[in-house]
């Protein structure tokens, strides 16, 4: 059987890959990579960069690409057969990486090269690669004894299995819920676009009425606008109690993940898991990450209280002094009512100005204006008929990258939005190998014969993920594993989050925001209302993120798994301190916290990175504001000093190269109206 996963190249044949290909391809590529590793170890020639580090890069290249493609397909086109094959192969691959990181022969080969004159005279990027490789060996157990290496390998394999279980439980629980309403009077308050989407969703299932799910395009309008509090409560509770019962209960999975992460950190000589994962990030220690979060919380607390007191007072003013306390399923609803009353602004007013086609065109136009590139459609095999493909061409016409765009929810696709780098090409002066990437989201699909009309929040999401994609695609790093987004995790969100700023600037919006029917731009009066409302409940938005970051750090620094404490209650107490209303006893947000528990590492002990990078993006954007948000000179500087450099230098150095100084906190507080 011809197996397309075995010799993948730039044109990935997504339409030919089947579940039956996964296991045989993985087994063959694992064997091939192991053979190449053995050849490095057994090479008796004098140690050189070519026969050691470069050979190590090449040894796992095809395996990495195949597993990236398989992981991706499990995220966007899963099936029973694919899931079964995926669950069989992931532990094998995890075991391989764990063994590789602890392979003493390979470690000694790299150390031997490090002692040579050639190693001491390496160019800066290759020298950094050597240092980071040695550091990674140490941090992954290369200096442990045989017994501890075996323990660490078992931990890594089990973490891979458990985090896969977590992710699949969450997807299945999300898909298991549906709410079908047949009485239209119960839909009072819901925008017409949301009603149309729910009606089409019902028809697609052969049902009458309106069907709602826990996917964001269905969930968010319902919680924000629906007048019926009992329905809001039902849906909110369904979303926040996913995977906390029955065969798909993530609670024991979380306990085991936390226990294994703690064991891993201690085995490697770290006080806790946060110190392990932050060591090679900008924060450097878990203490510094926590201090950063605590400082931001202190600067936000007073405004947080003011906002919540004002919302309570608003409800009493509208419904009388005996109005009930605001519950979690009431928050978005009353906050939207208050915003409409105080700012005369409803986000639904913006939706007609964000047809998906124009948003993508504007997204590309923004990048083209800033970075001197052209983005054109191209033909390529995809995993779904709705997926589109594009090429990025540099000013001289060279294709520097290609990418896929997958934007609509499907039942075989996980929720959320993300970017994946498929191929990160090592940059050589004498070659022009292009990069390959993709970005996915789950935005409102077309309904009622109209184009897909996005919320402003969805527009921001697309800009965010495209920022990640440009970081990958603009890389000009000579070492593949230091290229693109392979940077410190508390720096990786800077290129993505900074792109969201163009969704708020008038000149940025004018590149794409136009009424789907008339072509008219957003009226000045509506734009002014949007800007005035930008900082509405900004302290609540910030506290929400700080709550997630706080519980993440607490779980990986303070919580003792296996102590008999209830992890859900522990997390709920922390989140409660950051919440605007009283949470119910069965609040189970933690069981859906995919950022932290759907990957062996992921954002574990690293969720603070979002706020850390937000400080960087707010500060860095002040240069664009000062010199012109589509100024090609500033764009070129950002591209050359940050986007192109990947992990070839320390993140702090790259930031200073662009700004001429270190980051400052005040621009973030000013943007959020918290100064």
Strand order of the largest sheet: 3-4-5-7-6
Look at the structure and give the mean pLDDT.
96
Described by strand count, sense and barrel closure, the largest sheet is: 5 strands, mixed
Shape: globular
Our measurement of the CA-to-CA distance between the termini, rounded to an integer number of angstroms, reads 64 Å
Number of strands: 7
Helix content: 55-70%
Rg over CA atoms = 25 Å
The level 1 CATH classification of the largest domain is Mainly Alpha
CATH fold-level label of the largest domain = Neurolysin, domain 3
Q: How many individual helices? A: 27
Helix-and-strand structural type: mainly alpha
Query: Can you tell me the number of structural domains?
Result: 4
Task: Flag low-confidence runs.
Answer: none
User: What share of residues are in beta strands?
Assistant: 5-15%
The CATH architecture of the largest domain can be named as: Orthogonal Bundle
Descriptive key words:
single chain, 675 residues, mainly alpha, Glutathione S-transferase Yfyf (Class Pi), Chain A, domain 2, Neurolysin, domain 3, 5-stranded mixed β-sheet, two-stranded antiparallel sheet, globular
